[in-house]
Design a protein that fits this description.
single chain, mainly beta
Length: about 425
């Protein structure tokens, strides 16, 4: 290649070769001559293959499935090669992202039809090579090519990394949800859900739900088993997120679930227990919300630890309390760990002389300096805080309060239903309706 031409990204996918079981010819009684295997081979019809989309097609919708059908034989191999020719579709692609876009397919029970599991990259040249064998083991190969429609500038769906958690390489707690943020609104939510696959070392049921048009959340039925790896494959390239808006690349997020750390706190008791891998590690004295108003009442429910700050200014103005209000406050604290989006943190409060004896905070959990530092240094995003003893319940969509919904409620709200993390695929289809 010469000049300043941008090199193409090539992706090769396929299914493995499947062995054929050939039936032995039985002997016949009497004077009839047995039919030889050579005669069977001569009489066997050659396998015939068809591939859609058709050969030479242009402007094929990226969310179209590839279908391979065989007559007088069974499919033994399918290879799909895509060469992205649109420079715009390469924007943001990692140095070698080909492994992120592996095309797998599903073969029917009779091994006569293969359908691609995922959608196609916009703006790409696609070559499909299919092989089938007849009853005599004779192979037929068919090669077809077509090109896909490019994604329109301004209508290319990508991840919003600022609202996506966790990131690859993170070690998280057992309550960690998979939170996926998008840079554009999604209206075809069922198709996008169907393109997002979660696999884990320890099999568990889970499901997706939508917090907004731009954020989807995967939650397992129960807390993750500790000490395991989880992979999230987002097969977004070619998915039509809304009318005319296509994903342009795939993503993969790999994270680790660490030890199990669960904090338990009954607010009237003024203490919080730290349990690690099922054993109580320590008990920490605390002071919680004074309960003078709903705003200043610590929420009851299952919280998931979120972002953390070594130093933070706590300002009631962020909660809509005017600076001239008698309830207003502004104070600098250290070692703050967020537990909700409504302003609750675990944090150092050296100014509070009631820690361990009375609840006098504005809703946060106040800690002594040494305890706050320990929590800050020894907890992970995704660790769990289970709180009881107040008359204000944590809302399911307040922070990462997704465990507030029962599994039946969470599953009922999912568009595609239960997805098992065993690598068996998703529960729906990412392809366009009627394609």
């Amino acid at each position: 290649m010469t000049g300043n031409t941008t090199p193409a990204v090539t992706r090769r996918f396929g299914i493995g070769l499947m062995a054929l079981a050939l039936a032995a010819t039985a002997c016949t009684p009497g004077d009839a001559e047995p039919q030889s295997s050579e005669d069977s081979a001569v009489d066997a019809d050659p396998a015939a293959l068809t591939i859609t989309p058709g050969d030479g097609g242009t402007g094929v919708a990226p969310n179209s499935p590839i279908r391979v059908r065989a007559e007088s034989g069974v499919i033994t191999d399918v290879q799909v090669e895509q060469t992205v020719v649109s420079e715009a579709s390469l924007t943001g692609t990692e140095e070698d992202g080909s492994h992120l876009l592996d095309m797998t397919g599903t073969l029917n029970e009779g091994e006569t039809e293969w359908v691609s599991d995922w959608t196609l990259a916009p703006g790409s040249e696609v070559v499909v090579t299919a092989t089938a064998a007849n009853a005599a083991g004779e192979e037929t190969e068919l090669v077809q090519q077509f090109s896909t429609l490019d994604a329109t500038p301004g209508q290319r769906l990508e991840l919003d990394t600022y609202t996506t958690f966790p990131s690859s390489g993170d070690t998280v707690g057992v309550g960690m949800p998979v939170v996926v943020g998008f840079d554009l609104p999604v209206t075809n939510k069922e198709q996008v859900e169907s393109a997002m696959e979660v696999t884990a070392d320890q099999e568990i049921a889970g499901a997706w739900n939508w917090v907004s048009d731009q954020q989807a959340v995967f939650r397992p039925e129960e807390y993750w088993e500790p000490h395991q790896n989880v992979t999230v494959d987002l097969h977004l390239a070619g998915v039509e997120a809304s009318e005319g808006v296509y994903g342009v690349r795939d993503y993969q997020i790999d994270f680790e679930v660490g030890r199990e750390l669960i904090l338990t706190m009954n607010v009237p008791d003024h203490e919080m227990a730290v349990n690690i891998d099922g054993e109580q590690d320590r008990v920490i004295e605390v002071s919680n919300g004074n309960g003078s108003s709903r705003m200043y009442t610590t929420t009851t429910g299952t919280h998931v630890l979120m972002e953390r700050y070594e130093q933070l200014t706590m300002d009631s103005a962020t909660l809509g309390v005017p600076a001239d209000s008698p309830d207003a406050y502004r104070v600098d604290v250290q070692y703050a760990v967020r537990t909700s989006s409504s302003g609750e943190f675990l944090h150092e409060a050296s100014y509070n002389g009631n820690i361990g004896s009375a609840n006098t905070s504005h809703g946060c959990t106040n800690l002594r300096m040494e305890d706050a530092r320990w929590i800050f240094e020894n907890t992970l995003m995704g660790d769990v805080l289970e709180t009881t003893g107040t008359d204000r319940d944590l809302e399911w969509n307040n922070g990462w309060g997704y465990w507030q919904m029962s599994w039946d409620e969470w599953l009922e709200a999912s568009l595609t239903g239960e997805q098992t993390t065993d690598g068996s695929g998703t529960s729906g289809s990412p392809h366009g309706e009627g394609l």
